[in-house]
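The instructor's notes for this session suggest beginning with a concrete chain rather than abstract definitions. Hand out the sequence below and ask the class to guess, before any prediction is shown, which regions might be ordered.
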Amino acid sequence: MASTRQVQCLLRKICKGSRSFGVATEVNASSSSSQRIIDKEYEHSAHNYHPLPIVFSQAKGTSVWDPEGNKYLDFLAGYSAVNQGHCHPKILKALQEQAERLTVSSRAFYNDRFPLFAEYVTTMFGYDMVLPMNTGAEGVETAMKLARKWGYEKKRIPNDEAIIVSCCGCFNGRTLGVISMSCDNEATRGFGPLLPGHIKVDFGDAEALERIFKEKGECIAAFFLEPIQGEAGIIIPPDGYLKAVRDLCSKYNILMIADEIQSGLGRTGKMLACEWEEVRPDVVVLGKALGGGVLPVSAVLADKDVMLCIQPGQHGSTFGGNPLASAVAIASLEVIKNENLVERSVQMGEKLMGQLLEIQQQYPDYVKEVRGRGLFIGVEFKRKNLFPASVYELSEKLKERAVLAKPTHETIIRFTPPLCISVDEIQQGSKALADVLEIDVPKLQKEKPREAAPVASSACDRCGRVMYD
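After discussion, reveal the predicted structure:
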């Protein structure tokens, strides 16, 4: 067998005068330390994330272990990707059994798994048809294309004049098409020009929405919203807002499109967050937990009048609807249903919300608001009172206390654990937060310099609003 040195010499000879190639000396990270793995990622991966300094090496249910064997409680659940819990045995069984039979066929051919998934998911959610994709962002892009196509074919909007209305503070992904709906300066700056045909409106303001519909309704194809805004910090609309949106969309012949990628599949205590007001959107986008934390799976649901506007060759995905993903998605939905995770989200959410509200009462100088539904909860902090400590540092201190949560927009921490979480684990998470506020924050404030004032959030480039103080 040739030595590593001999292989490297051979590669240099082959590639002489062109690009040079090295030989990876280690591909197994299981024996590496956390810091070595973090350093390796920093060196070789794009810096498009700012992770907490924790390395996932193994996970089960609500628990995660790092390479050193330290155990942590997951209070983020992969942004709702693992509602069912990490490495659920039924989902893993479906993955393994299907992987041994057939993984990818592409949609150039039929396969024997996707039709079963299509029937299952459309029956479960009460829609005629599904268009399968992979990631949530792809699902949103698909819904946007579908809305434009419907607008031109069914509503007779003049060519290239279709408008999509979306909400300030929305987050639907980071592709170029999707960020054209975004109010997040970090997501949009440096990536222009953004796609035309987008109008913003305040989330929760049905009167402002109707004014836009009255003014431009003839060219509006769709209103795109998260029924509860996730990345914005678990923002819940006023009671009656979703019903008002449904009525307005019906009145002005505009598609109501709900992004349920984070808020759906049991996260809020309903299978879909729109069910809190018994609203049926024209189009629903699913993702995250649809893959059970095992594979990326997304789906766009609609009735035939909308879905059949897209014909062969007009949209697709090599991996969308692949047999492996279809088998996993069925198992993922069955777990939510059979293990009563929707009901569990309500029960555990009430306990977690109650404990977090008690913490707010204990530390009103730090905690501005606790809000959420089910196990979709955000805790907003008072940035000026925390200063010079930051919410990111609060998350780091939670990590040191074996609880994993992540901040958003510099003032909010989301508490969104897997729906299988226990009462004892909820207590563990709540106690960790209380200890951070009682013990760690005063230490941080004493240790850190206070020369500079806290940095104010910049106004949105699109609408001029300061979304997060």
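Then share the key points. The mean pLDDT is 92. The chain has 16 helices and 15 strands.
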